[in-house]
Design a protein that fits this description.
Belongs to the class I-like SAM-binding methyltransferase superfamily. Trm1 family. GO terms for molecular function: tRNA (guanine) methyltransferase activity; tRNA binding. InterPro entries: SAM-dependent_MTases_sf (IPR029063), Trm1 (IPR002905), tRNA_met_Trm1_C (IPR042296). Pfam families: TRM (PF02005). The structure is a single chain. By secondary structure, this protein is mainly alpha-helical. The protein has 2 domains: 54 residues, no CATH class; 67 residues, Phenylalanyl-tRNA Synthetase, Chain B, domain 1 (2-Layer Sandwich), CATH 3.30.56. Helix content is 57%, strand content 7%. The protein has 6 helices and 3 strands, in the order αααβααββα. It has a 3-stranded antiparallel sheet. A hairpin with a 6-residue loop joins strand 2 and strand 3. The longest helix is centred in the N-terminal third of the chain and has 15 residues. The radius of gyration is 17 Å and the shape is elongated. The N and C termini lie far apart (55 Å).
Length: 122
């Protein structure tokens, strides 16, 4: 029974990080009218975010910007500003669908802290 549970989690994780599968889900949702009008702000936005997160360069998990700010001993940087700075430094980055103030990135935490401090000085 435990191995079945592990298998389900692995399959679920793999599907939720598979851009073509998520794109297919988004297309079906559009066909079925699930993303029109007011629902677009929920389902369509979520699926688009998950597609962005499925970049193979991005690790599992996420980093809350409040956590970066706490370690840097500064105010939390704006999400888009931090993402832009990480991109400029050559790191992969996307928003996380798990938390509104979180990002997924292949940037090490120490570098995230350095970048956040630099942004604070601007």
């Amino acid at each position: 029974m435990a191995s079945l549970s592990v298998c389900k989690t692995t399959v679920f994780d793999n599907l939720c990080h598979n851009a073509s599968y998520l794109t297919e889900m988004l297309n079906l949702a559009k066909q079925w009218g699930w993303t029109g009008n007011d629902t677009e702000t929920h389902l369509g936005k979520l699926l688009k975010q998950m597609i962005d997160e499925s970049d193979p360069k991005l690790p599992f998990g996420y980093i809350k910007l409040d956590e970066v700010a706490r370690h840097a001993k500064i105010n939390s940087p704006p999400l888009r500003t931090m993402m832009s700075a990480l991109n400029k430094e050559g790191y992969a980055v996307s928003r996380s669908h798990i938390a509104s103030n979180a990002i997924k990135t292949n940037c090490p935490m120490a570098v995230c802290i350095r970048i956040a401090k630099e942004l604070q000085q601007c």
